[in-house]
């Protein structure tokens, strides 16, 4: 893990991947095929990329029942408790329609309406992600979305979805679950097939092909974000414990070889000890090859001259996850301007938010926390403006409106207002 002296206007190496020309062309070809050939194309690519021939794209009731028998009772209860926490948090995000009326009869407002449908992508591959099910489904439900479907890549051996994913989906009340992954799943959700319905919005993380596919279909449907590899920044002072800091950095490094784990500190002693701890803990980590590659290529420890400089660097990084492991984390909170989620104190390790606390773990990556936010209930509603002018209100303002229209050279606009009084 590189130990570096922080400097002003530091050039940050990010694991940004916009895809190669070949990858983009492949995604475009897959989506076009799915649009034209529907289920047949989906099944073809599932066999090609996931190595399994499916007889049914949709997860069956029998598969869901079987999933319950394969999970321990404690695991099911943990999913239920996590779901309750996530729902309680997102219930507080509800926004209401509003309307106001002035004395002259002007009525203005905003109407909040849930989307009709949403498609939620749950990644697969090297791990199962029931947490992604809950984090995507629950805010959509709280928003009032009436039709929610899930897609996720099937297991290469069984052709089924992981038991925890099926149980989480069923506990969340989702009945349409499709065993489809990759760009073909995004194409199916965007344009529909004989089996998979088209939706209004697609959310959820995935690999580079999923990210490129979401970018490709955006405009025909809405998407949440183009998510990159996971990242964490730990902002720590001399009071932080090196073994805990190292463990938190590795908790993100094990996600992906391109994940980014960074320590920012004003303590050289802590920096040196954390570097040693990371090397020590890596040796016993089950996913050590993935974590080691992440640490080697995208991991870093930055040492600053002061905590003020450290905070400035954090804002420059604009991390997906930010941990404040300092003696008084609350005193720094007001200075943090750019971060997807902020974890305060040693008892708020990043996995607390990943799984259980309640705030959403679908977060902006690659510095996009400078201008974007975590997935929320707001992502599943749309807002319509309400405008009502009485005759009195229009008479009062008609001259200004017509003059403004003519300022822009739009005579028909001006006449549309003036015609009411001729």
TrEMBL record:
NAD(+) binds at residues 121, 184, 207. Pfam families: Histidinol_dh. InterPro entries: Ald_DH/histidinol_DH, Histidinol_DH_CS, Histidinol_DH_monofunct, Hstdl_DH. GO terms for molecular function: histidinol dehydrogenase activity. Residues 54-81 form a coiled coil. Pathway: Amino-acid biosynthesis; L-histidine biosynthesis; L-histidine from 5-phospho-alpha-D-ribose 1-diphosphate: step 9/9. The keyword Zinc applies. It catalyses: L-histidinol + 2 NAD(+) + H2O = L-histidine + 2 NADH + 3 H(+). Binds 1 zinc ion per subunit. The active site is at residues 320-321. Its EC number is 1.1.1.23. Zn(2+) binds at residues 252, 255, 354, 413. Transmembrane segments: none annotated. Its cofactor is Zn(2+). Keywords: Amino-acid biosynthesis, Coiled coil, Histidine biosynthesis, Metal-binding, NAD, Oxidoreductase, Zinc. It comes from the Bacteria. Substrate binds at residues 230, 252, 255, 321, 354, 408, 413. NCBIfam families: hisD. Catalyzes the sequential NAD-dependent oxidations of L-histidinol to L-histidinaldehyde and then to L-histidine. Belongs to the histidinol dehydrogenase family. This is Histidinol dehydrogenase. The gene is hisD.
